[in-house]
Amino acid sequence: MRRKVEGSNIDATTLLATDYLNHFNEIVMLIEMIADMPEILDDVKAWQPKAYKDHFRDSTIAEKDLAIEAYDFVPAIYREPFEQTIEQINAMIPSAVERLEKNLSNGEMDILKDNAQTLSRLIQRLMDTASAIIHGSHKTMDQSEIDNLLG
What we know:
Blueprint (H helix, E strand, L loop, with lengths): L1 H4 L16 H12 L7 H6 L5 H6 L6 H8 L4 H30 L3 H26 L8 H8 L1
Helix pairs in contact: 2-7, 6-7
């Protein structure tokens, strides 16, 4: 499989593709904008997690079939921390949305702005961890690191 992905956008060591992170870029951007555009809350609430293979099935990139095929060959040293990090992102987004919705409904615009900034940065940090894994790292953020960033 490593030979098959050479010259593609799929990392030849991990067999993962960074294109998957585009799915999360969308929600980070929306969260960052919510303080200035509260009307996009419905768009933020409509965002749904998408599994790696599902993302590529719905993708228009040329190498989508190769990305789907390669995922079955991702070495466990990368797959496990990658999936753990994605689970952390997917768990964080609904709680972030709930917090922002509460701030908005209570008219707490200054708090909303601070929370949106903090939460989008935290999700971005997790995305950076996922990106590092895609490129060969196998370190994740543990819950205490996430709690420290939130607190």
